[in-house]
Write a structure and sequence with these properties.
Distance between the termini: 26 Å
Strand content: 25-35%
Number of strands: 18
Oligomer: single chain
Shape: globular
Bound molecules: flavin-adenine dinucleotide
Structural class: alpha/beta
Largest sheet: 8 strands, mixed
């Protein structure tokens, strides 16, 4: 495509950068990937790995649904350590008001071809006996799944390498733009296109990006096979997770193939340190135990935190940055970047190669952000 050493150079070897590298290299482009750390070491290592269709907005639905299909198509090629399981999500309703939300969500999904099953209280209890008695019911979305994100990122990046991509780890990027990535201790990398896929670190490299860090906590238990069978999420999650200002916790638990139970989740703005906040953790576990009292009796083996890259409108930024015609963004995926990485990669590669995208891309274009600055 150009006289540069690469057609595309990507900053970030998280799941989004890895997926972009894979897609572009398989389309025959010369690709380089740079990361200051190891593969999948940022939010990707901290994420829950729920591959989930969401309906917070039409654009969110379109990207999550598109991406979920892509994960399903990839399923047979995923190595064992990616631990892809199509366990389904159950959105849990505690009362009649939330059952109304079950019906609304079910209708929304039905109109758009997503399989669901409304569950009454007895069926829910039968499917997930460790939920506390007295739940009103729920909505089962059987196509949703789970995977282990760092291994998924590694798989995508290795596949990109098999198609010629060059990967440089342990290289910190000082700044980027105008077809160039300047590294702290090594010669610069030149490419026709640069992709900022640096997750929560992306605003440090592109001035004017309205991305905030949104801290999250997770806890994992010892092995208790059969304790949990589906990813369970409280329906109130829609209220708590999508608040754009205050701290929140939500009941969100995931069965791992190992028999472990992954317990989430919390959301905090303005908490820049990565240490576990014990008050936040206690609040999150208390919420989980309100739904599943038996969790209190399980041993936990580890807790950790990670930073979601949050945009003001809760949609990722995918595509050209108008202040620099060589620069594209693939960032701002907040709590859905594991799910939406594959859709992001397709959209970005379509933009670079001039191919027709399979879904409308306007909602994700960075040009929607009012405040763009000339990059540093
Ligand atoms: C607690 C929690 C739970 C989550 N659960 C889910 C879930 O269930 N489902 C889901 O779909 N999503 C989930 N997410 C969101 C998901 O993890 C992220 O959206 C996704 O991992 C973002 O991937 P990324 O590649 O954009 O960023 P990252 O994984 O953060 O990768 C960015 C990379 O850029 C590198 N980098 C940054 N700055 C520089 C620099 N200057 N020089 C060189 N390299 C640099 C970093 O080292 C890093 O490797 C969750 C997130 C959290 C925190």
């Amino acid at each position: 495509m150009s006289d540069s050493a690469y057609d595309v150079a990507i900053v970030g070897a998280g799941i989004v950068g890895a997926a972009c590298a894979d897609e572009l290299a398989r389309r025959g482009l010369r690709v380089a990937v740079v990361d200051r750390d190891t593969v999948g070491s940022g939010a990707t290592a901290a994420g829950m790995g729920h591959i989930v269709v969401m309906d917070d907005s039409e654009a969110q639905f379109a990207l999550t649904r598109y991406s979920q299909h892509l994960w399903q198509q990839l399923r047979s090629e995923l190595p064992d350590d990616v631990e892809y399981e199509q366990c389904g999500t159950i959105w849990v309703a505690t009362d009649e008001e939330e059952m109304a939300e079950v019906r609304r969500k079910r209708e929304y999904y039905r109109e758009r071809g997503v399989a669901t099953e409304a569950l009454d209280a007895a069926t829910l209890r039968n499917l997930e006996p460790n939920l506390r008695p007295g739940m009103a019911g729920g909505l089962l979305v059987p196509d949703d799944g789970v995977l282990y994100p760092p291994c998924a990122a590694r798989f995508l990046l290795e596949r990109a390498q098999q198609h010629g991509a060059q990967v440089r780890l342990g290289c910190s990027v000082a700044h980027l733009g105008q077809g160039c990535i300047a590294l702290n201790d090594e010669p610069e990398i030149r490419a026709e296109f640069i992709v900022n896929a640096a997750g929560a670190g992306s605003p440090d490299l592109t001035a004017g990006l309205e991305i905030k860090k949104r801290k999250g906590h997770l806890v994992i238990t010892d092995r208790y096979p059969g304790f949990l069978r589906h990813q369970l999420v409280e329906l109130r999650y829609l209220k708590s997770a999508h608040s754009v200002s205050s701290d929140s916790v939500a009941f969100n638990v995931q069965p791992r193939r190992t028999g472990q139970v992954l317990i989430g989740s919390s959301r905090q703005y303005g908490a820049e340190h990565k240490e576990v906040d014990h008050a936040m953790l206690a609040w999150m576990l208390q919420r989980a135990q309100e739904y599943m009292p038996g969790l209190a009796g399980l041993s936990t083996v580890r807790s950790w935190t990670g930073f979601r890259a949050a945009t003001p409108d809760k949609l990722p930024l995918i595509g050209p940055w108008s202040a620099d015609k060589s620069l594209l963004l693939a960032t701002g995926h907040e709590g859905l970047g594991i799910t939406t990485s594959l859709g992001t990669a397709r959209i970005l590669a379509d933009q670079i190669t001039g191919a027709k995208p399979e879904i409308p891309v306007e909602p994700y274009l960075p040009s929607r952000m009012a405040r763009e600055h000339v990059h540093v």
